[in-house]
Amino acid sequence: MTSHRLVIAEKPSVAASIAAALGVKEKKDGYIEGGGYLISWCVGHLVELADAAAYGEQYKKWSYESLPILPEEWQYTVAADKEKQFKILKELMHRADVSEVVNACDAGREGELIFRFVYDVAKCNKPMRRLWISSMEDATIKAGFADLKDGRDYDALYASALCRAKADWIIGINATRLFSCLYHKTLNVGRVQTPTLKMLVDRGEAISHFKKEKYYHVRLGFSGAEAVNERISDKGKADALKAACEAETAVCISLTKEKKTAAPPRLFDLTSLQREANKIYGYTAKQTLDLAQTLYEKRLLTYPRTDSAFLTDDMEDTAAKTVTMLSGKLPFMEGAEFTPDVSRTLDSSKVSDHHAIIPTMELAKTDPAALPESERNILTLAGARLIFAAAEPHIFEAVTAVFSCAGTEFTARGKTVLAGGWKDLERRYRATLKGKPDPEDMEEENTLPELSEGQTFESPTAKVTEHFTTPPKPHNEATLLSAMERAGNGDTNPDAERRGLGTPATRAAVIEKLVKSGFAERKGKQLIPTQNGAALVSVLPDMLTSPQLTAEWENNLTQIAKGAADAGDFMQRIEAMMRELVKENTAADKSKAVFTGGEEKPSVGKCPRCGSPVHEGKKNFYCSNRDCAFTMWKNDRFFEERKVAFTPKIAAALLKSGKANVKGLYSPKTGKTYDGTVVLADTGGKYVNYKIELPKKK
């Protein structure tokens, strides 16, 4: 019997790329076979932690008394629509001719979790190997298979992934149920989501409490230069200074010239790519991640879920070849003079799991014009960044001249470019964009005339300009991603472990969930907290809203992944925090929060599963809690067979007492109608069941 190596990828498209690289061609139901390989795939998260209801009947309904829910033995579930693929994987794992299983899921924390959940729930005990690669090119895949790692080398990474999943479950389930029960409204609370919301609310409050103030500048004009004084809050004083200056002599009291260098930018990690794509193209963080993932699966971009802005030292040759290829491939580089130096993009000590995001050599064989515009934009952006990073520094001379006039100092600043370097290339790239370049990124050259210390200017021209202080700007995706990345960094030195809210891979989903839950909304590029978002933050304790605390947890997870912290200790702290939370929050604080929505729609009753209001839709009666699946369909076969309309009156009775007296029920057996009692027989599944209560025998 020929032994086979079973390879499990995260998605069908990745499995297809691996099969193509290894020359495996025979397609079967749910896997590809050939050359001693069986190559199959998960469909994202095939196996997940079970919902609270799996731990006992008492958790089917949301109630304060049942909290906290802290599983001792964790239960797992396979999503109903993914059962077929799980069954295929399980059968393949247990095939007698399978000698070992290769985890080829994405090389990161979540990829490890996806594979291990399937491996464990399928009760597989075959030897486990790990494919750990950063791009999907044929050569990289082959090299990865020639250097497979022992799967157990990644046990610490799995431990951190499992802690992340369990901590999110414990905080999400308990805090959401606790505050939803107290305030009689579905209030989604999350380990990373809620502190992120707090950032949006804090910024919103800073804007609403901002008081605009008027101020003035006096500006002196010389031949080809303008010098400005410090701000003056009083118009009369500004006018008096202007008049005094026009009648006096201005003297240049200091002149400093400083040669400065703006180093080329670093390569992209996922967060910086998302920020730049938001600034330039207006893409959301999720759109950028999805586009980068698609390009990765098309083998045109390296692995996107990375937190490193460097390449490994052994990639010098690859980087140099890629830069040369890009210089001929990207239209904005046509005719540009460019001598690349990739050495400053290399630093193995700053790469943990995956190197920075760059295009692959596969692009040499691809026509970028054939790609969808959005994919082409991301690929060009990543390619342009690699070119800038390998270009010469931007060198300029900064000149600062200080003048004295009427007993007041005025300052003029100038900038003379000595070597354009990478900024010349960036200007070329920006010129190809449809939108206008960002003024913050495109500083103009401003040359001052020849000046010397002691030089005098008789009766200079003077003018007063009026200005207003400006409030902080609302967050957009770019600034919020930066804030999430920096959260908790304030008290640590720059060399400390990166803290931050969430990981590069999860931040986009967190922002999307805030919008979907109705706690934040998009207005153009801006992200604004809603009234419900502000109200939720106001009723929650610091332990749930503090970005510093949550950043500490994320740091703990990173340490667990490195084997430098204990998973058990981390989980004990999370459980203790939940017990404390439930103990300290026993009643709603109505003075703090006013929640909108939900109440505006008439309710037909309370959900038997979670206690939230049930509303009437066009085709159904549905629970207002987006995390609860309870729905009663008006066209349910039970009522259609009995030829009665499923009215709001029947729905209200079923929700109130679990029973409804209904007249004119049709019997398919006898062809007659009768009056009877319909009972709600909800088992907590996807569909709600009903039955007829038989009259009790006398």
By CATH reckoning, the class of the largest domain would read Alpha Beta
pLDDT averaged over residues:
91
**Unreliable residue stretches:** 492-496
Strand pairing plus helix content: what structural class?
alpha+beta
Description:
There is one protein chain. The chain folds into five domains: about 5-145, Rossmann fold, CATH 3.40.50.140; about 165-210 and about 500-585, Topoisomerase I, domain 2 (Orthogonal Bundle), CATH 1.10.460; about 215-265 and about 395-470, Topoisomerase I, domain 3; about 270-390, Topoisomerase I, domain 4, CATH 1.10.290.10; about 605-695, no CATH class. Helices cover about 35% and strands about 20% of the residues. The chain has a seven-stranded mixed β-sheet with strand order 2-3-4-1-7-8-9. It has a four-stranded antiparallel β-sheet with strand order 14-13-12-15. A four-stranded antiparallel β-sheet has the order 19-20-21-22. The chain is of the alpha+beta class. Helix 1 (about 10-20) crosses helix 4. It catalyses: ATP-independent breakage of single-stranded DNA, followed by passage and rejoining. This is DNA topoisomerase.
Task: Give a topology summary.
Elements lengths: L3 E6 L2 H11 L3 E3 L2 E4 L2 E5 L5 E3 L26 E3 L4 H11 L4 E7 L4 H13 L6 E3 L7 H9 L2 E2 L4 H29 L9 H16 L5 E9 L2 E4 L6 H12 L2 E14 L7 H12 L3 H13 L18 H14 L43 H17 L4 E12 L2 E12 L2 H10 L24 E3 L2 E8 L8 H10 L20 H10 L3 E4 L2 E4 L1 H9 L2 H4 L1 H15 L5 H18 L18 E4 L6 E4 L3 E4 L7 E3 L3 H5 L6 H10 L1 E8 L6 E9 L7 E5 L5
Parallel strand pairs: 1-4, 1-7, 7-8
Antiparallel strand pairs: 2-3, 3-4, 5-6, 8-9, 10-11, 10-16, 12-13, 12-15, 13-14, 17-18, 19-20, 20-21, 21-22, 23-24, 24-25
Helix pairs in contact: 1-4, 3-5, 5-17, 5-18, 6-14, 8-9, 8-11, 8-13, 9-11, 9-14, 10-11, 11-12
